Amino acid sequence: MKAIKKYIIKSIYAFFTILFLILFGCQDFLDVDEPNGEITPELVFNDEVTANASVSTLYTKLRDETLITGRLNGLSILMGFYTDELDFYGQSGNDIEYFYTHQILPENNILSSVWNSSYNLIFQCNAIIEGLENSHNITESTKNQLLGETIFVRSLVYFYLTNLFGDIPYTTTTDYKINMNLGRTNKDIIYNTIIEDLLDAHSKLNSEYPSGERVRANRYVVSALLSRVFLYNEKWQEANYYSSEVINNTELYNLETDLSEEFLVESSSAILQLKSQQQNLVTHEAGNFIFEYGPPFMIGLSSHIALDFETGDLRKQYWVREINEGDQTWYMCNKYKRFDLNNSPKEYSIVFRLSEQYLIRAEARLKLGNLNGAATDINQIRNRAGLSSVSLTDNLDAILVQERKSELFCEHGHRWFDLKRWGNAQEILSPIKSNWRETDILLPLPQNELELNPNLLPQNPGY
Amino acid sequence: MKNISKQKNSGWIPNQSILKIKLCVFLIATFLIQAQTYTFGQQQRITLSLENKPVSELIDRIEDETPYRFMYLSDEVDTQRKVHVKVQNATVEQLLDLVFKDTPIDYSIVEKQIILTRKKQVPTTTTPPPPRTNVLREQDPVTGTVSDAEGPISGVVVTIKGTDISTLTDENGFFTLEASRGDTLVFTYPAYETLEQMVGNELNFTIKMTEAITEISEVVVNAGYYQVKDKERTGSIYRITSEEIEKQPVNNVLGALEGRIPGVEVTPTTGIAGGGFKVRIRGQNSIDAGNEPLYIIDGVPYSMESLSSYRLSMEILPQFNINPLNTLDAQSIESIEVLKDADATAIYGSRGANGVILINTKKGKPGKTKFSVDASTSIISVTKFMELLNTEQYLEMRKHAFENDGINLYPETAYDINGTWDKNRYTDWQKELAGGTAINQNIRISVSGGNQQTKFNLGGSFMKETTIFPGSYNYKNTSVFANIAHNSKNENFGMHFSFQYGLDSNNLPDSDPFRTALSLAPNAPELFDVNGELNWENSTWTNPLASLKGSYSNKSRNLIANGILTFKLIKGIKFKTNLGYTISDLDELRLIPHTIHNPAYGLTSENSNSFHSNGQRESWIIEPQLDVFRQLGKGKINLSIGGTFEKQNHKQLEILAIGYPSNLLIGQLISASQLTILGDLNNHYNYIAGYTRLNYNYDNKYIFNLTGRRDGSSRFGSNNRFANFGAIGAAWVFSEENFLTEISWLNFGKLRASFGTTGNDQIGDYQYLRTFSVSNVSYDGNIGILPTRLFNPDYGWEKNKKTEVALELSFFKNRINLETAYYDNRSDNLLLGMPLPGTTGFPYINSNLDATVKNTGWEFNLQTLNINNSNFNWRTILSLTFSKNELVSFDGLEESTYANRFAIGHSLNITKLFNYTGINPQTGVFEFEDYNGDGIISPPYDNQYIADLSPKMMGSLSNSIEYKGWSIDFMFQYIKKQAYNEYRRFQYAGALSNQPIGVLNNWSEANPNAKYQTLTSGKNYEAFLAHSRFNSSTGVISDASFLRLKTASISYKVKIDHNINCTLFLQGQNLLTFTKFKGGDPERNTDYLPPLKRLLIGAKVEF
Question: Which candidate, B482, B560, B613, places its Cα nearest to that of B324?
């Protein structure tokens, strides 16, 4: 009996000992495998394939989510509604409709998606820059190319943001403790930083595209953005210089003679395109702009664009389509045509194309007093559209305004940014937008941002 | 055990009857010695108290504390019979007299042997006839049957009053006895009310016995790792039994808790079958981490996290919440215990902060094998529609809005009023899209039974419920369960095994049409054109039935298996292991054929797509535990110590398939043009813990309970994995004090208090890791790689300190029972996803916040037995909760990203609103308080009004009445709160959208005292802006208190013969609602289908 008792007491002690050993000696039990599909930054940036993939993901975001996307929250559509380019036919009470009716409130959800997706992309750029700077396993040339592309993408996003919102927070780090309290930086300083960054990117990139197609940035893509940034800042010499750099590279870039081929994958006008996810997909632009029967389900091209082409302008013939039903007519922006997957050639969304560089140089030359050069550039565009050449006696300023409108309509908000920088938004829009107010020149900052970060206050005037 | 173990082995005492020869010898010896009982040991005195314990335990105790040893034949003596004895300093004989009086057992004491034998059948001829007053009376054989609500009872002692003549009922409850007219028969049975019956002309009796009311104090509640008598518990544990659950027409057992438990808020997230529930025990503790209680089913922790993917179910099931308990048949639940305070929950450590819900399934009971079959049908419909404008009113409003802005030419897109649509059409869209009647059919079968050693219960059910939407949608549930328990005769070894398996399928429309029903213009076009095709009215509207072309369906399988092994190592020491395994699997499919879109888009099946998701969660748990029991004089010590090892694995695969050659093939992945993997998740969660409980009970008067736990969780970074939790509880049963035992009206009084800490780790897996993720979108031949999240390696546990003081009282023979509790729970080190401005790149980061949240409240539970006799029985339960949630402190709130969401001294459930002050008499536009006095109403300066939308008071009153075979139950639920009213979700008048009828009373010069501002097409920017401000102002908050007849049931029991019971029942839920609220269902008003009204009719047969 005694022996049994002893044995039992012993086993109780053993139980406790084992229990405590397992519980507190063996913390290994709590070590879990890493989750599927997650890699530490150290690994990502010490391998060329993954580092390269992380940079190419930036373009995915541009294509599908951020600012220049052809989706509904992209500037082509939102700012098209905001100006005289597009008419809204969708369901009433839609947050997109308020861009059309100029009733954007700071609570507008589309507005915050524009803001948030932009800063998410900036974060991604900053994370890549940090990762690449700490990387030791990638060749210097690859590192330069990847850094150059990343800096370019970040500059592109800041360029649009400051144009839309004015003074904005400028972040260069992934540290949320810093980013969450950032105040707004003056837009002139932002422009200076963008220019510095772009010059840095320009020096890091070379003239070849990273892959065969024109779907990632090379040095000329940076030049194209630089010329636009200088144009917006009225630095005519520099704008002239960088647009010329692109235009003069005739080995790579030539204006497509056939307007119907301007937006195809092989277009020689293309400077930067966003490649589709899969070969058989249509561009987001085609998906949103094209309709077969009237009325359009949301987006129709406004008569202010469709009926404002010079007689004989081939761009109206090739890039605008009419839908008739009974006595009603609707128009659509038909730059991207590929909707029927089987019978049409492939298209990619275009971010930069050569015509804009000609128009930038023409404008810069005008301001610099080089009327001859300006006219030559304008005529490149006009002749291609089947229009007669201009002469130096014509009102070149007015013609340039019209050419930018007819050439660049429905592309990434060009129209709005032009009206804004030329100072004639009020004049053009107040007659057609009943709710137009002068303060509409800037969009409001999203309400949620102001609430989460009071350093962003005050709100832009008028909201 | 000592030397007695030899004798036990010899076959006398419980199990191993090996030595049958010895047994015979003893038998003979017994008979020989029976006559001359020695009185040895009369001086041996004993003090003990056993409540509702088996005779076997009494025997053990006597053997432990005295030199006496028992001998008996196990098939003669029912050692499982429960006894209730309490003696002080009694002799063993006195004790045995007490225990075996009125039972079929005789005892005799031979030296140190106590021999138990069965009494000879009575009436015994050996007993001399007692003196009678009326000796000349002829004796008649009196017969009868004794039963209770469940059926016949065997072993009832029937005695003729004043005599020794008695007999026992047999297994059919039958007895026969020689008695004379005028005799009184006395029926006694342990734990039942003793009955008396006079013998008159009638010689055949049907006796119905009812359980004694002392039952309430004898209830044993499950506290998870241990069991405790309700009377002796130190913690706050509320118990709901199958009786209450069975009377409610619910699909999910959580629905049966609605409104019933003080301090517990249960709200369904949708009226669609197969949806989710929101459960809060004593309020919201955490700002952003999970606030869900811990669920434990038969000892196995069960994750309530929905396996659904938001991409698939978001549009139809709110918060993509699919409650995994849906697969469990509510009627297979025996009881639910809700653990609320620190004393009860601290043993669950890091997962106890939000309370614990223990679900126990029905177990078999010894006795006759019982079959039960029931079937029911329910009719289900919406409780209440909102009052919206009809066509005439609506067009008037629209016209007015344009007129006010001087617009004569209606915009091209104002189809409702510019003549595009028929102005004379009227459709009540709520009726059209959500006005149907759903049918629920249910059938269930179960078998249970067993003997003292082995018990079993198995069963299954099938249920089908359609929806109130147009179209044929349904939810089906099939479930089976089985459990079996076995213990050795000596009870030294026990095992229990149970499993629950459920199979659900749900076929639903792609999105909840309820929202659309509220906003569609009343003169919107016809649904179908002349050809019976969906009508798109020349692309001027989105046909609400188009979304029904899309579909959402799911199939889920849930298995919960559990095994418990117990060994009694030596007297007072027990080893137990709890083993559990669960696997849940949810397959979802969302089909979006191109036909969901307007044909004008010119889409083909190449634009059809489908979403596929498969979520799987698997977990296992091992919990070894050692229980030690020791009696020290008047004190009892219970010590439990154990450990938990748990692993959980969550996998989720989501696929998007785009483009099909034909819609016939939609959903067949192999025929899709393009497949995208949207998510491929494989998360691991490991958990380890050691726990202990020390309970000291002195004389059933003073009880102390200490619990502790050390937890480690893989959800935290390596520096913060472990944390300690613990609690102390104490109870004083003051009614046991000598100075109170004299008071006859006070039957029971207990004061208890507890204090302790628990934790919360509901923050998701891996959140401390800094990583890049591989994404599904590729670019230019490269896979996508992008930062996963903002990471914080340092966040740690959220701690919740709970304090409770409670008073339990029973009066007047336990007819009135009142439990009052006050609690104070404080959470700090709050774990949360702190919202961040977009500039950080992500919407939030997980971190600990130096803030404290306090939940305090009073809970009252009054249970009364108003009437109690054999025919008529009426019970009432009144439950009241007054609770308060408060953010006590928050370091740097004003500078933080929460500045506009919370306010110190207020509930977490607040919203900051503009303070609506009225309508400007000049402009007719809404006006608001200008808090900063800058002349402009703008956030965040002027939305400073703090509105609290959490319930202030919750209460319920339930009544249960039994009269003969009838049983009537009903419960009223009352909640006092505020909520967003009917104006919250509506557009301004310029938008093509219907509105609540309140807008008819709009401002104009002719109607200056209007309730609603001047109508605008949107051109009046001031009014447009004011409308938007109004939507976030006090103007959209109303009192949403309501009184609701939550459940009602009537049932009637018909006895077909004494073996077959048939019950017919009628049950209802949400039958009547009394409220002033106009914004839809007051219990839950969102864009989704609110809780529905159900009426059930059914029948149950038991044999």
Answer: B560
Q: In CATH, what number is assigned to the domain containing residue A130?
A: 1.25.40.390
Residue A463 in any domain: the answer is no
Reading the block at residue A374, the tokens are 């300006």
CA distance B624 to A203: 67
Instruction: Find out whether A253 and A269 touch, Cβ atoms under 8 Å.
Output: yes
| Residue A352 domain boundaries | 209-223+232-301+308-412
- From the centroid of its chain, how far is CA B978? 25
Is the CB of residue B732 less than 8 Å from the CB of residue B682?
Answer: no
Those of residues 77-96 in A touching chain B at CB distance below 8 A are 88-89, 91-93
- Clarify whether residues A2 and A45 are in a common domain: yes
Dist CA A241 CA A229 (whole Å): 12
Query: How far apart are alpha carbons B418 and B416 in whole angstroms?
Result: 6
- CA A442/CA A162 separation, integer angstroms: 9
Comparing alpha-carbon positions, the chain A residue that sits nearest to B597 is: A297
Q: A-chain residues within 8 Å CB-CB of B841? A: 119-120, 122-124, 126, 174, 176, 179
Give chain B positions within 8 Å (CB) of A124.
Answer: 786-787, 841
3-class DSSP state for residue A306?
helix
**Which of the residue ranges A75-89, A408-422, B564-578 would you say has the lowest mean pLDDT?**
B564-578
| ipTM of this predicted structure | 0.84
pLDDT tens digits, A35-60: 777 888 888 898 999 999 999 999 99
Does a cis peptide bond (omega within 30 degrees of 0) precede residue B525? no
Structure tokens at A64: 């599908």
d(CA B333, CA B362): 5
Tell me, yes or no, if A189 comes closer than 8 A to chain B by beta carbon.
no
CA count, 13 A, side-chain hemisphere, B86? 6
Structural tokens at position B884:
């308060």
Q: Let me know whether A254 and A154 are in one domain.
A: no
Kindly state the tokens that stand for A255: 């204006």
Please give the sequence-ordered ranges of beta strands (E in DSSP) within B872-922, or none if there are none: 872-890, 910-913, 916-919
Q: CA angle, corner B28, sides to B24 and B32, nearest 5?
A: 165
Distance CA A76, CA A274 (A): 14
Which residue bears the tokens 């336990």?
B814
Q: Are A219 and A105 part of one and the same domain? A: no
Q: pTM (2 decimals)?
A: 0.75
* Same domain, yes or no: A141 and A153: yes
